[in-house]
Write a structure and sequence with these properties.
alpha/beta; three-stranded antiparallel sheet; 279 residues; Rossmann fold; single chain; eight-stranded mixed sheet; 20% strand
């Protein structure tokens, strides 16, 4: 895969990195999860190019986005990044695909502007109901703590790949998807090794801003949506059916024996679900 890379200005002085894969048919914008980047969609986009124009983006703080130091990682900024990309292309109709934070960003964009997307395919979007969980996440959480402790540097991309492939959660993902994640998720460091583009502190701040108040607004979002969820019994999977039910035009699809990383675990299965829903 060799998508065209372009930069699109967003708010707060951010320059969003956009990966345009080309393709025939109506456009889809792909939105990534926290700590990831747009290129881990490579395997899925390669399966959809005969029927769709595929575009992914790197949100602020992630991938090849240019993010001024000190930029807020509140998720409203992610929605603004997404809307900047939508405005750049000026498509008459557009579909959206989102994973985790990316799914929430698509819904936030719909909340803020309305009727942006023809329909949405969302894998375990992070939309947290008001209450103790939301309050806990806003103060900090285990995911943020882990992100700050994450090993950011490896001797090479191959070393990073072997390390990730040897242990959960990446030990069960498709190897080509993992290659894309590693190849484009690391930058060459001046000391000769490689370093994560999305640094641990930035990732932690994104996790700490995951309580958006969006859940209470879901009944007002009319966009036709498919919410997909795994069966790993973790928080995002348990919330997915409730999110689908709260959306007036939402339906739910279960991905049995998958986890929160399903878009990387079985790209073909995900691509089939996306294509079937949008066609």
């Amino acid at each position: 895969m060799n998508p065209k890379l372009l930069k699109v200005p967003s708010t707060d002085g951010v320059q969003i990195a956009v990966h345009d894969y080309g393709g025939d048919g109506p456009p889809i914008i792909f939105c990534h999860a926290t700590g990831f980047h747009g290129r881990y969609w490579d395997s899925i986009c390669s399966l959809l190019l005969e029927d769709f124009r595929c575009i992914s983006l790197d949100f602020r703080g992630h991938g090849d986005a240019e993010t001024p130091k000190g930029t807020s990682m509140k998720w409203i900024g992610m929605a603004e990044d997404l809307l900047s990309v939508v405005d750049h292309f000026k498509f008459k109709e557009i579909f959206g695909v989102g994973h985790s934070m990316g799914g929430a960003s698509l819904l936030l964009a719909e909340k803020n502007r309305g009727e942006v997307f023809k329909s949405l395919w969302l894998f375990e979007p992070i939309v947290i109901p008001s209450g103790p969980l939301a309050e806990k996440l806003s103060r900090g959480n285990d995911l943020a703590t882990s992100a700050r402790k994450r090993n950011e540097r490896f001797p090479s991309r191959e070393d990073a790949f072997e390390r990730y492939a040897s242990r959960p959660p990446f030990s069960n993902v498709d190897k080509e998807a993992l290659r894309s994640y590693v190849n484009y998720g690391f930058a060459d460091h001046q000391d000769g090794d490689v370093i994560l583009k999305c640094r641990g502190e930035v990732e932690a701040q994104v996790f700490e801003n995951s309580s958006t108040g969006l859940f209470d607004c879901l009944p007002n979002l009319k966009v036709v949506s498919k919410v997909a969820g795994s069966t790993d019994q973790q928080g995002p999977a348990l919330l997915a059916p409730d999110i689908a039910e709260a959306l007036p035009n939402g339906t739910y699809e279960e991905f049995a024996e998958m986890t929160h990383f399903a878009p990387m675990e079985d790209p073909k299965r995900v691509a089939v679900s996306i294509s079937s829903f949008f066609n």
